[in-house]
């Protein structure tokens, strides 16, 4: 029997997938001491239709209840209960706030019924509810799951998020009035959420150190590889990338991650020294990282990226790689270990320096830094917050 408090985690993401996820790592760690019910991303009837057409891969049988919606997943740290919700209507496109909220409240009753049924099956009583960046269902469900405490785990700026920016900001404002504590993952989020809530704690993203340290490879090929791990999406500075690709024709550029901006990807793919590896499962990424000579974070500077604490920074460091990044957000923790550039010419020069001046000793310093940021250390911070909640 686990001694910790029961936790119900409501999310805006899926447990499985082809990229690393903050809340999945955190819940995996908390499962060492707590019973955790992870409520998966709320799929819609649109997901059912696109999966039937072979255009997506939603868990349709579990959504429809022909397979069990509630299952047990084994992680390296303990078992996690996983709930797939019944499908809802896709309503984020609706502009009228009143109509949207009415439909959202109605659909939340369906979601609530599914969650409480799972809680009854598991014997969950008075759980801590951790809402991970999903105020869209968090607000209508606040106080309705018998929770002892309600925590908002915020890892992005919702007003700048393309997929939920239309209603997300106003719903988050109202949701923040109902939560007991807020956990954020970056300095930017700490500043913004502290304006509307009195109890905000910074717990930065971590790294699965053992997994990514497997990529440490001091023996490199003669032809250098400049690599990026992450989604090919709206966050990237594509003009900067084109400049870099043209400036280093003697190097190969490898991009590992899902592609959500296919037109931008095609533009970069015109260059002979560019290869897109596509989306990979998290445990596959180290084999690609091991080919890199340097990792880059070519993020544009905007309202969304200024609030990011990138998972990839510690992943690169765990592999011993030198890192060059734009100054998209405060990265003061890494000033000794990461080259930070304010414009394209500086990025180009710093990239050249890292390619030519790197040593095994520097790699070991980076590895030691990443090891301090293992997810287990981050989970210890959250454990302390949960204890604080229990003592109140």
Core attributes:
about 400 residues, alpha/beta, Rossmann fold, 2 domains, eight-stranded mixed sheet, six-stranded parallel sheet, 15 helices
3D structure, described in words:
The protein has 392 residues and is an alpha/beta fold. The protein has two domains: 7-206 and 374-391, 3-Layer(aba) Sandwich (Rossmann fold); 209-372, Rossmann fold (3-Layer(aba) Sandwich), CATH 3.40.50.2000. The protein is 39% helix and 16% strand. The protein has 15 helices and 14 strands. It has an eight-stranded mixed β-sheet, with helices on both faces. It has a six-stranded parallel β-sheet with strand order 11-10-9-12-13-14, sandwiched between helices. The longest helix has 26 residues, at 97-122. The mean pLDDT is 94.
Number of strands: 14
Structural class: alpha/beta
CATH fold name of the largest domain, please?
Answer: Rossmann fold
Characterize the overall form. globular
- First-last Cα distance: 24 Å
Count up the domains.
2
- CATH architecture descriptor text of the largest domain: 3-Layer(aba) Sandwich
Can you summarize this structure?
The protein contains 15 helices and 14 strands. With 392 residues, it is α/β, with parallel strands linked by helices. It has two domains: 7-206 and 374-391, Rossmann fold (3-Layer(aba) Sandwich); 209-372, 3-Layer(aba) Sandwich (Rossmann fold), CATH 3.40.50.2000.
Secondary structure layout:
Layout: E1 7-11, H1 22-30, E2 36-39, H2 45-52, H3 60-64, E3 70-74, E4 79-83, H4 97-122, E5 128-132, H5 135-141, E6 149-154, H6 165-176, E7 181-184, H7 187-193, E8 200-202, H8 209-213, E9 225-229, H9 238-247, E10 252-256, H10 262-269, E11 274-278, H11 285-289, E12 294-297, H12 311-318, E13 323-326, E14 338-341, H13 344-357, H14 360-372, H15 375-391
Parallel strand pairs: 1-2, 1-5, 2-4, 5-6, 6-7, 7-8, 9-10, 9-12, 10-11, 12-13, 13-14
Antiparallel strand pairs: 3-4
């Amino acid at each position: 029997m686990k001694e910790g408090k029961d936790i119900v985690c409501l999310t805006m993401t899926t447990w499985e997938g082809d990229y690393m996820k903050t809340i999945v790592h955190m819940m995996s760690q908390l499962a060492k001491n707590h019973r955790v019910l992870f409520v998966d991303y709320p799929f819609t009837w649109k997901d059912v239709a696109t999966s039937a057409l072979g255009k997506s891969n939603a868990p349709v049988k579990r959504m429809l209840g022909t397979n069990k919606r509630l299952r047990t997943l084994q992680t390296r740290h303990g078992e996690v209960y996983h709930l797939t919700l019944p499908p809802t209507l896709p309503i984020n496109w609706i502009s009228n706030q009143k109509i949207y909220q009415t439909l959202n409240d109605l659909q939340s009753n369906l979601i609530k019924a599914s969650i409480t049924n799972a809680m009854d099956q598991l014997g969950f009583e008075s759980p801590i509810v951790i809402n991970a960046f999903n105020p869209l269902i968090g607000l209508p469900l606040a106080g309705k799951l018998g929770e002892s405490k309600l925590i908002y785990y915020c890892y992005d700026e919702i007003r700048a998020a393309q997929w939920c920016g239309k209603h997300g900001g106003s719903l988050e404002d109202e949701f923040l009035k109902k939560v007991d504590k807020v956990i954020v993952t970056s300095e930017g989020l700490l500043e913004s959420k502290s304006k509307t809530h009195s109890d905000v704690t910074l717990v930065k993203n971590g790294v699965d150190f053992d997994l990514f340290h497997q990529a440490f490879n001091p023996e490199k090929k003669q032809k250098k590889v400049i690599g990026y791990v992450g989604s090919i999406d709206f966050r990237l500075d594509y003009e900067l990338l084109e400049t870099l690709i043209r400036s280093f024709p003697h190097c190969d550029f490898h991009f590992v991650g899902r592609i959500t901006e296919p037109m931008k990807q095609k533009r970069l793919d015109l260059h002979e020294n560019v290869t897109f590896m596509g989306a990979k499962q998290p445990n596959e990424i180290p084999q690609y990282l091991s080919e890199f000579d340097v990792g880059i974070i070519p993020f544009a500077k905007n309202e969304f990226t200024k609030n990011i604490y990138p998972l990839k920074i510690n992943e690169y460091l765990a592999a011993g790689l030198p890192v060059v990044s734009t100054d998209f957000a405060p990265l003061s923790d890494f000033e000794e270990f990461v080259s930070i550039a304010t414009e394209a010419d500086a990025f180009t020069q710093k990239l050249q320096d890292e390619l030519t001046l790197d040593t095994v000793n520097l790699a070991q310093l980076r590895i030691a830094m990443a090891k301090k940021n293992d997810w287990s250390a981050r989970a210890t911070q959250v454990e302390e917050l949960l204890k604080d909640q229990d003592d109140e």
